[in-house]
Specification:
Elements (H helix, E strand, L loop, with lengths): L1 H10 L8 H18 L5 H19 L3 H14 L15 H13 L6 H14 L11 H4 L3 H16 L10 E9 L2 E9 L9 E7 L8 H5 L4 H9 L2 E5 L7 H14 L2 E11 L1 H12 L6 E5 L13 E6 L7 H13 L4 E6 L6 H16 L3
Parallel strand pairs: 3-4, 3-5, 5-6, 6-7, 7-8
Antiparallel strand pairs: 1-2, 2-4
């Protein structure tokens, strides 16, 4: 069932004129309302919400955007979500600012790989400054163009001086990893601890099908991963992923991140949801030496593995997409083969809202697995 829906997520056209921006706004609004009321929800009501959200998820995978919006609006209102506020009017000519930034950036001749990569990131960030953000490009419509335009002034000035503007950068920022066939977008969240020279843990989070680099930072649990990073002092990184994330891409990502942050190689962790859980398991099996521990939420183990780092798999009994019994059997087979696997079944949880509910405990489990 999950494999079929993953294909539909990629192939199914929307039956209406619903845009990705429409869906993102509705989804983020619901996640914010759910996260705010999560502790107050009784078991039966929680079950209802999980099942209702999963029905909306299936509607998304089959291309029925209108149903998704209607369902999420109803659920958000039931949870007491405030009415969405209209976007403030902004008459800034971002097209002009983008062109001016790119002119300056194109004159820079960086010395060394770290500065070359920093320059490519500055160019990609400058490209987000457009007067009319595309409603189907999440990197553009999630971008705070006013803040970005100010940040770019400082970034360009640093690059012109031969300095890396992203070294030990604090907070939430969007960047890219240059690839042969284009850039891989990702979000980075660096708490105060990551701005120092003392190595910090790294947690890489992989989103589900149909999502992108913004899901863990803006949607799942209303961005709870960032609050957890502040509390535990780890660097959080969310790349945009497809069904498979190649080991060589992982190596490139780790190298690029080390240019900017001091990362403890013995404390690199991986978390994936749904399709991202499958990608996480694939990476864990291909490069087990890279991770201190890995967590798969609502998806993951398929087939055998010669070696694995400690693995946590959490499944929702109500999940219509990633069957909990099937995941349990896969985990049992891995344990029988001698791997360290922990399986947890959440009786009142479904597919997507499972992440909101278990992510804090998941991070605790990862950090409890000592290198």
């Amino acid at each position: 069932m999950l494999s079929l829906l993953l294909l539909l997520a990629v192939a199914a056209p929307q039956k209406t004129s619903t845009t990705r921006l429409d869906l993102a706004r509705a989804y983020v609004r619901f996640e914010q309302a759910y996260a705010a009321k999560q502790e107050q929800l009784e078991g039966p009501r929680r079950r209802e919400l999980h099942q209702a959200f999963d029905r909306a998820t299936i509607a998304f995978f089959t291309g029925d955007g209108a149903k998704v919006l209607a369902d999420l609006e109803q659920l958000s209102v039931e949870l007491g979500a405030p009415a969405p506020e209209p976007a403030p009017k902004d008459e800034t000519n971002y097209d002009e600012l983008r062109l001016a930034a790119l002119v300056r950036l194109n004159r820079i001749e960086p010395e060394g790989e770290p500065l070359r990569l920093a320059l490519e990131n500055a160019k990609a960030r400058a490209a987000l400054l457009v007067n009319q953000p595309s409603p189907n490009d999440s990197a553009q419509f999630f971008c705070d163009r006013r803040a970005l335009s100010k940040d770019l002034i400082r970034e360009i000035e640093a690059l012109e001086k031969g300095e890396d503007p992203y070294r030990r950068r604090l907070g939430d920022w969007w960047r890219v990893l240059p690839q042969e066939k284009g850039n891989l977008p990702l979000r980075v969240y660096a708490p105060l601890a990551a701005t120092q020279d003392t190595p910090v843990p790294l947690v890489i989070v992989l989103h589900g099908a149909g999502g992108d680099e913004n899901m863990f930072f803006d949607a799942y649990g209303a961005g709870v991963i960032k609050r957890l990073a502040d509390q535990r002092g780890f660097l959080a990184v969310a790349p945009r992923v497809s069904m498979r994330l190649k080991p060589e891409t992982l190596e490139q990502l780790l190298t690029a991140l080390r240019y900017h942050y001091a990362i403890d190689p013995a404390r690199v962790y991986l978390v994936g949801h749904s399709m991202g859980a499958g990608a996480a398991f694939g990476l864990a099996a291909a490069t087990p030496e890279r991770f201190a521990a890995v967590a798969c939420l609502a998806g993951g183990p398929r087939g055998k593995a010669e070696r694995l780092p400690p693995l946590l798999v959490i499944a929702g009994a109500l999940d219509p997409l990633a069957n909990a019994d099937g995941l349990a059997k896969s985990c049992a087979a891995l344990k029988e083969a001698g791997h360290r696997v922990t399986f947890e079944r959440k009786e009142d949880s479904g597919h997507t809202l499972l992440v909101t509910e278990v992510l804090p405990a998941t991070i605790e489990w990862l950090f409890s697995q000592r290198p």
